[in-house]
Write a structure and sequence with these properties.
By secondary structure, this protein is of the alpha+beta class. It folds into two domains: 62-107, no CATH class; 115-245, Protein Transport Mog1p, Chain A (3-Layer(aba) Sandwich). The chain has helices at 5-15, 21-33, 35-54, 62-71, 81-107, 115-128, 140-147, 233-245; strands spanning 135-136, 167-175, 178-187, 190-198, 214-220, 223-229. A six-stranded antiparallel β-sheet has the order 1-2-3-4-6-5, with helices on both faces. Helix 1 (5-15) crosses helix 3, helix 2 packs across helix 3 and helix 4 (62-71) runs antiparallel to helix 5 (81-107). It is globular. The chain starts with a helix and ends in a 5-residue tail after the last helix.
């Protein structure tokens, strides 16, 4: 399907998190049905991730912080309706700038995102979509090449059908503004999301269940793998053990 300008506007709004939940869910269903739209999403997110990883992050100067703080101070109410409307627009703009500045200051280049929570949220979003995958295939030789060219690094892809965890396909998630490959396996009627993140930025750490979902992680070379599912913790550990021991696609 040919992408329109409106499609591109909606896609950028979706990536930026500007759509409300209902429209975001509707757009995710479109992404699942439109491969061209899904490929454009992957391209944009990969570009954003590369820029975030390779370009230095600028921090707000003390002078800029003082200027924003001064603008945010309460101002006298306007004397007429026209002036009041202009003041309201200015207040919204200042509030947005102050919020963005606070976010930049709070995050900082050295902070770590709550990885478990982000991954569980990503898994839940995928489960709410019409399909939890961008590419559907039980063939690891199909899924592995699909990631190549879309992301700087692709994960190991292991055939675990004999162990009771058949491969269903893959998708691209965005974790902390970093595009990440996610393999999707099944355990009977359950779904296991296995996301690979750069170990240098998302280091392995002790994890615990989040909102009823179990999380298992391990590091393999430059990548840290995070498995998320609502299966029992022991079964998810068995999946992780089988994946680590399995033979990957070259």
């Amino acid at each position: 399907m040919t992408m329109t300008e409106n499609d591109r506007l909606l896609l950028n709004a979706y990536i930026a998190g500007e759509l409300d939940p209902a429209h975001a869910l509707e757009f995710e269903q479109r992404l699942a049905d439109d491969s061209a739209l899904a490929d454009e999403r992957a391209r944009i997110e990969a570009l954003r991730g590369a820029m975030r990883e390779r370009l230095p992050r600028e921090t707000a100067s003390p002078a800029l912080r003082r200027r924003v703080a001064a603008l945010a101070r309460p101002q006298p109410f306007a004397a007429n309706w026209r002036a009041g409307r202009a003041a309201m627009a200015a207040s919204v703009a200042v509030a947005f700038a102050a919020g963005s500045l606070a976010t930049l200051v709070a995050i900082g280049p050295g902070d770590r995102e709550p990885v478990s929570e982000l991954l569980v949220a990503s898994h839940m979003r995928a489960m709410m979509a019409s399909q939890p995958i961008d590419v559907a295939s039980s063939d690891r030789h199909t899924v592995k090449p699909w990631f190549n060219g879309k992301l700087p690094q692709s994960p190991r892809v292991v055939d675990l059908a004999a162990q009771g965890f058949p491969l269903a396909g893959g998708r691209i998630d965005v974790i902390g503004l970093t595009p990440a490959p996610t393999l999707v396996y099944r355990a009977r009627q359950h779904v296991i999301s296995l996301t690979a993140l750069p170990a240098s930025r998302f280091a392995a750490a002790p994890v615990r269940p989040v909102d009823g979902y179990n999380v298992v992680e391990w590091t393999d070379g430059p990548l840290t793998y995070w498995a998320v599912s609502d299966v029992a913790a022991a079964e998810l550990e068995s999946f992780a053990k089988a994946f680590r021991a399995g033979e990957a696609v070259p």
